[in-house]
Amino acid sequence: MEALVTPTCPTPMATETPVLISGAGPTGLFAGILLAKMNIPCRIIEREFEISPLSKAVGIHARTQEILDMTDPSLLQELMDQGFMMPSFHIYYNGKLAGEIEALPIKESHFKKALCLIQNKTVKILADAFEKASGTKVDRGWELIDTKVVEGSSADGDSWVETMMRRAVVGTNKRAGEANQIFGTLELAEEDEEKRYEYEVVKSKYLIGADGGRSAVRHKINMPFPGRTRNVSMILFDGILDTTLDLEKMNVINGNGHRSVAVLPLGEKDRVRIVFDNGFLEPEEFELQKSKPITIEEFQKMLDDVVRPLQLKITKVNWLTYYRINERRAREYSYKGRIFLAGDAAHIHSPAGGQGMNTGLQDAYNLVWKMAMVINGTAPSTLLDSYSEERTAIGDEIIQLSSDTLESVWAGNLIQRCVKRVAVALAPILLPLAANRAPKMSMLGLRYYENSLNKSHKTQKASASDVGAIGCRARDGPLVPFLGRIDSGHNSDSEFSHVSNGPTDTSGKEGENRSNNSESNDGSNHDRQHSRTANSMTSDDTVRLHELMAHPGVFQILVFTGSLWKHRPAAASELVQSLECYLAEWRSRWPSSSGVPVEHNENKDSLRPQFMVHVLTTVSGSQAATAAQFLAARRNVVGEGKVHTDVGKMLHKRYGIDAAAKNEGKGAIVVVRPDSHIAYRVQGVGQSAWEDVHGYFESILI
């Protein structure tokens, strides 16, 4: 058995925790928040003593907003309060404004635009949320120097993770000669002779390596990180500009010498990120250039030469560095079923499209619920195998998307530049035609495919391209709680008309409401908070499906009855029997939150169910209403089979429940995973359909 690195110090302190997370960036912090909300204690360690002041990632896409909202609406609200919505683009050629391109509103989601917020603020908000949820702080200053999986010697052969870490007693962990790099290698085991360290060995069931592109975890488990280093060279700047440009817009300058400059707002007065096209450099050329740090004077001259006759005068520098793009993915995201890589530790790529941080957060969203269920004894350890299988495929897709995006916006040959110039002029015509690209950039189109977790029905075969297919994102839509009457006054022309908007953006200047959310038909914004509880809904309330699903770690069972009760009113009583029978059995057999409760978790609910059921109907006519009333009177608690009317049959359509009478009379049951992807579906809502759903759960759980 390979031993941990042995430091030259007294015997290190030994501690234990169910989950150790290395890295307190967005990915590690979000993983910690999710674990706390699922009552799984964890410990987050971070090499740096303070949150990095660098702006780094700035975009939070619609899909990420959805998962943050379903995790904790107040968390998303705080991010919105401090951020701003994606502004329009100003495109310049030869020093003149050639066009303004509005950011396309996203039709697929309640969240219409990307949210912009610099990463150091995002990290502070996430760190505060982790402390609130778990009652513990990030352990800063601790540097992981070695880790291994220890194979158990007991009869059951169980294994665990042992991690050695250290912290400088005085000063920081930075060693002599260590450079500030965005990506590179780091000799992790070396010590400075002048430094004194304290050491600790942590025993954990699992280790999540969320420690960035230079991941110590990835290095120590010798996980290959194949890919390429591109010859595209950039200079990145963060600071204050004095210019006549509108710095509240995204400015893209196609300048002299076939170079491009992007000037992006960072949410503070005159503060911007500049991405400067530094041309194509061979590796030795880049290393030679990087060996001498660029000065402000040098960069100002380079900027002037490219943007002239426009003027961009630098008045303050927060960050200035050379940067070269790496496109790499870890061969696997898991190691011996105990150590998992997430975020930049697992994948790195071009910043074009702003996919990096979002992908890391979604890695955590995929991983943590599986880990929690295994720790709780509800699912076999093999459930965790699906993490690497699903997320490596997503990693490949994101790397390709960011690469394609870089190619489309960066300086190219003469023909490419001419095409881009024409595209800007025709943008008002072309943009509506390019709307199908929005799900990719907003990450709403990312999906999984059939595997050991996502299963198709044995006899009801369907195509992977079908609407609402296995592995697709669980889509959102408006619902009206059924309270004994038919609500026919809701206009469904707008997808989220009359829907409470949850978190709202209040970051506009001088009271301007720059809300990211949908508007009602009369043009007024709904500003009601998402924080209301489901049991406080009144007959005038409209709710989104994702609001009902805002329970981390829970399987959501959606029962689509269509107009079943119009054809068979007696089916309501049958449905009550099935609901009561199977919910009771599932919750008894596979209880949730059986791990050690997180004592300071304000959202703690040790009786939180592992399964919730929502009945969605399109009732019409007196017989159907009578049947719905029967069910509503008996199952009137959200998650217990409460009946909601599907406004305009929107969700029936979005989940591929055919509105034709031949299928609408059957209905369907759709099982949604805790990370809001479709795992299983079956036609019908009768006894045999419930037996099929039960069989699905038996196939994936213990």
From TrEMBL:
Name the UniProt record assigns to this protein: Phenol 2-monooxygenase (NADPH)
Keyword Oxidoreductase: yes
InterPro entries: FAD-bd (IPR002938), FAD/NAD-bd_sf (IPR036188), Phe_hydrox_C_dim_dom (IPR012941), PHOX_C_sf (IPR038220), RIFMO-like (IPR050641), Thioredoxin-like_sf (IPR036249)
Pfam families to which the protein is assigned, alphabetical: FAD_binding_3, Phe_hydrox_dim
Region (Disordered), start-end ranges: 490-538
Compositional bias ranges of the Polar residues kind: 497-506
Cofactor(s) named in the record: FAD
Natural source organism: Entomortierella parvispora
